[in-house]
Amino acid sequence: MWLGVGFAFVFTAIIYIASPSLDGFRAILLPDQGASWYYWKLPEPTVITRLSVWGMYLAHQFALWGLIWYAQTRVRKYSSGLHPVNIAALAVNALFVVLHFIQTHVWYDGLAQDVSIFSSQGAVIVMLIWIMLMENNRRGVFAGKPLPIGKRVVQFARKYHGYFFAWAIIYTFWYHPMETTPGHLMGFFYTFLLLLQGSLFLTRIHVNKWWMFMQEIIVLAHGTIVAIIQGNNMWPMFFFGFFGIFIITQMHGLGLSRRVRWLFFGGYVAGALIVFSQIYTNRPFDKIWQLAAIPAIDYLALVVMALLFAIGIWVYDRLRGKQNANPVSVGGGD
Question: What is the value of pTM for the model shown?
Fold first, then answer.
């Protein structure tokens, strides 16, 4: 794990150091056209620019899916050390990190050329909500209290999360060129950590509560920094939104004392009062909705996800029961 974290730091530094070689691409980028526009993409993509990123993305995606399938069907047990399949996953991810670096500096474009900016953001959001669903029984959702979610729903989420998470992470990884804005650099560092976590399946560190918590909480810093750079005074929504999820849900799975939890809650309330009164001095309570926006969306989406999984399981059971009740006869005809 620590070697992987070191790799994330070193390669993020390499991306930053190599920034000048992308100046030629930056000189021809089109002006920003609003929130739904992704700025870092070529104005005139070619067949090779598209083939380079889509080909490498698909190769990376199917390689990780294959390794996850192998681990689930052949290994199937946790270990305090690395399985050979973990070493293979680490090697595959490291290889494609290097290939993405080369691809950016030769052809530049990421998947952003052909898909919506909201698809990348949405993939990571759904992944974080999926984590809350999986952790429902261990740490609860509201102040340590779990939602009444069926056992099979949680089992389904745990069994198949690796395939969705691998897609969300790798898709987002290839969505962006390896640019060097603060948002890109922190985003790639975060993605490297997620790729590392996705390589350590069936190891004890993969389910370590502090390591898992780090995968969730970094989005607070990333979302806040990107919002600050955009300069639209929306950063409190991201900071206090994700901080609110920490207060409501995440900190209750860390074994913190009641006193520490109250200190975090007090810090959240004091910080919100200070920030909103200073930024919005005339009518601070007009923006108070920013505190609840992200938690409200995430918790509603959590309930919807659990219901969709439950409906899917119910449909599967009905179809399987119908097939068992009407077995197909093979041979032995009149």
Answer: 0.90
